[in-house]
């Protein structure tokens, strides 16, 4: 079986370093100083519409290419940014991409799915399954491909293995070069590899994760990956992790998240997505309100991408349509 763990040279997929820019108007609207809040633009990595999965895929695809893979196989929700960026990486590297998605083929091909199609990915619909069943379905697809003489590389859910998380250890080092005095990096947490890599590079105290509802035990997931990276155990309760921004479920939109999306867009001209980055900024706003983030210190929001998901999220599109209607002038 193809293992991605023992080869460790990344391929280049993105454009580095990503910019670090101030957000003075959002900062002042939150009661912070104009210089206190910055944004790290990992939405601008270049390939495939951008986003945090590219740094992980540089390592994971590096291993796949070194092992002579013909196919990339990965899993996700229908609106998975990771699936979309794996398809883009496959296209860039000349590999076939197979996406094993939790859902049924009647789901509208909007948002990320439209881009999956554009990048030429093949979708396998696994039905309404849980995480372990989705992983099993991907292994089955990989076995079938092997039986046909192909060499598939299975990329883990969200690109989150210790190997993939190395991409965010590098991001942490890149951030320290850009701003040696940074106090706190705020990041959305899905499968956990992004936060784990940052914790490895910056230490647990400087990383504030905001759980987005993609996994049941985010602290455990991040701590396991960070421990694998460093070779030393990390206690889950040493992590700074906010659990208060999920709302009803992973796919629903809570009012504070829509508010964070509106505030960021209207003060800085920067668009967030309703699943990850909207929740991360909602968590940042809550952290300022309860004193976990304070004026006079440098806070960096890591923009992890995800904008295509806005165009495949019915709740967010209904909210923006209603908002637009409420502000329309009659001629
Ligand atoms: C996947 C994703 C995250 C979460 O990253 P993990 O490493 O899975 O925790 C955050 N933001 C966006 C836009 C994502 O697509």
From TrEMBL:
Residues 12-305 form the Tryptophan synthase beta chain-like PALP domain. InterPro entries: ACCD_DCysDesulf, TrpB-like_PALP, TrpB-like_PALP_sf. Its cofactor is pyridoxal 5'-phosphate. Keywords: Plasmid, Pyridoxal phosphate. Belongs to the ACC deaminase/D-cysteine desulfhydrase family. PANTHER family: 1-AMINOCYCLOPROPANE-1-CARBOXYLATE DEAMINASE-RELATED. This is D-cysteine desulfhydrase family protein.
